[in-house]
Design goal:
alpha/beta, Conserved hypothetical protein from pyrococcus furiosus pfu- 392566-001, ParB domain, 3 domains, 5-stranded mixed sheet, 7 strands, 53% helix
Length: 293
């Protein structure tokens, strides 16, 4: 992505859309004859299946519905035309759902020609700006931008107006087991608890600590301390565990081969090698030896 595009992404939702694509937040009713905006029948609108937001709080929808019943939909819903007819919602699905609850027959819409990629980006930015996504919805949207749309951590950060660490921290949550992810999405655990649990290392321990954190009302800091403690205990136990004859034989063969002490840490076929050196000269010798093998 060139510098010009990066600058556009950094300005938020308006920069993702063609000029004039976003109307004022509290626009006056849109005339049916407008080139871009009009009132559409509510059944002509369809949710975007790629919408980053997957959960809608029922109480919040009820409150918005009551407001819409009183005041109407003040901000038009951003849509794009569907090949099979009707319109796909780009931004404003919550307003559309609440309008249905309020019994509205029509809603104001604003139409723009957008590619699927640009529509997804616009929906993501709109939801993040409104703080409408839960941490896992945000993480999954970031993952899609990385894997399917060719973005980097830097371009995503620029797009949403956050720093790169925000993107990296969000993506780390996807490494949690599904059981823990469900607890975060149901708000039984916070995003901070989830990141703290990652320090425990394995799935079983993370799930166990997650349940204990909820039962004990642990703070994020306490959860982090417990996870770190368990990981350290496991590491110490692994170091004290007797090595198998095959591992000891491998250590001896490697030690003879490179001329210095080599130890092998092995756990179910995965691990690491530790190669000792007594000076920088010996390290240089080892590097040269390994480079020519």
């Amino acid at each position: 992505m060139n510098d010009a595009n990066k600058r556009r992404l950094g300005r938020g939702l308006d920069a993702l859309l063609p000029a004039g694509a976003l109307p004022p937040a509290a626009a006056a009713p849109i005339a049916a004859a407008s080139a871009d905006g009009f009132r559409a029948k509510i059944e002509e609108l369809h949710p975007n299946r790629a919408q980053p937001r997957t959960r809608f709080d029922d109480d919040a929808l009820t409150g918005l519905s009551a407001s819409i019943k009183e005041m109407g939909v003040l901000e038009p819903i951003l849509v794009r035309k569907r090949a099979q007819g009707g319109f796909e919602i780009v931004a404003g699905e919550r307003r559309w759902r609440a309008a249905q609850r309020a019994g509205l027959r029509e809603v104001p819409v604003f139409v723009r020609e957008l590619t699927e990629k640009r529509a997804f980006e616009a929906a993501l930015v709109e939801n993040i700006q409104r703080e409408d996504l839960n941490p896992l919805e945000t993480a999954r949207a970031f993952a899609r931008l990385l894997e399917e749309e060719g973005h980097t951590h830097e371009t995503i950060a620029s797009m949403i107006g956050k720093d790169r660490s925000t993107v990296a921290n969000a993506l780390r949550l996807l490494k949690l087991p599904e059981a823990v992810i469900d607890l975060i999405e149901s708000k039984e655990l916070s995003e901070g608890h989830g990141r703290a649990l990652l320090g425990a290392g394995d799935v079983t321990t993370m799930q166990k600590l997650a349940r204990e954190a909820i039962a004990g009302g642990w703070s994020v800091r306490e959860t982090e301390r417990r996870a770190r403690s368990v990981a350290q205990q496991k590491q110490a136990a692994a170091q004290l565990a007797p090595k198998s004859p095959n591992t000891r034989d491998l250590e001896e063969r490697l030690t003879r081969s490179v001329g210095t002490r080599v130890t092998v840490a092995d756990r179910k076929g995965k691990g690491h090698l530790n190669i000792a050196f007594a000076s920088y000269d010996e390290l240089d010798r080892l590097i040269e030896l390994l480079e020519h093998r």
